[in-house]
């Protein structure tokens, strides 16, 4: 397993301007990590993480900077909405995502993760999902086909509530039906839709482009400020990997049993300082992997 980080783990400092993306690369190079994935923080030429508005010279310089530091760039993640009912808006969004495919190629990155829907619903939204899937699948298929000749894998992540459950992720993958389309498999995000990661992770492992290691504290009663709600009403708060309520050992055993041995990123979302969360998180993940 090649453990590394998502740049989102450092968003506390990158978003505040106290670390640059080059600083993140430096920190990762000095750690035990083997790779770094970029998670875009907004768009615009001045955004701190690479996006389609960056100057090509800046993109090339960052690629070289990472190479000089010995940091492999494993994935580029960004937001997208491929469930737009307006045909012109949908076509424009597909073209926007294709620009991110080109950006990944310019960075020497072989994986992208794009969202597929920005929809929030309550209650039984199965009919809404069926309608959205009919829009998502052909759009994601077109993007995957565009990316394939460039040697880039595309996919969605299990997040955003609407397409977060393991079965819905698989349904999108099967509907797209392209060999280079899979999933960023986040072991913690299933809790946001009240799924047990020890069941959901093994179900989706055959489709994993990359794995995210994350942890949450889970409570059934309101613990106070700093928590958010799962779809079913539980209270969640980000934790250092290995410190929360996910049975990480069981999940790791399932990953090992599946034969997956690719990239795994620590994605820290806890309340602790991000550098502490990152250093302890990767140490725990590596230790648990070795013990499994």
- CATH homologous superfamily - what is it? Divalent-metal-dependent TIM barrel enzymes
Find the count of extended strands (DSSP E, 2+ residues): 11
CATH class: Alpha Beta
Q: Quote the CATH topology.
A: TIM Barrel
What is the SS-derived class?
Answer: alpha/beta
Provide an overview of this structure.
The chain is of the alpha/beta class. It has a single domain, classed as Divalent-metal-dependent TIM barrel enzymes (TIM Barrel, Alpha-Beta Barrel). It is about 40% helix and about 20% strand. The protein has helices at about 10-15, 20-30, 55-70, 85-105, 125-145, 165-175, 195-205, 250-260, 275-290; strands at about 1-5, 35-40, 70-80, 110-115, 155, 180-185, 210-215, 215-220, 230, 235-240, 265. It has an 8-stranded parallel β-sheet with strand order 4-3-2-1-11-7-6-5. The chain has a 3-stranded antiparallel β-sheet with strand order 8-10-9, with no helix packed on it. Helix 3 links the parallel strand 2 (about 35-40) and strand 3 (about 70-80). Helix 7 (about 195-205) packs parallel to helix 8 (about 250-260). About 45% of the residues are buried. The model has no long low-confidence stretch (mean pLDDT about 100).
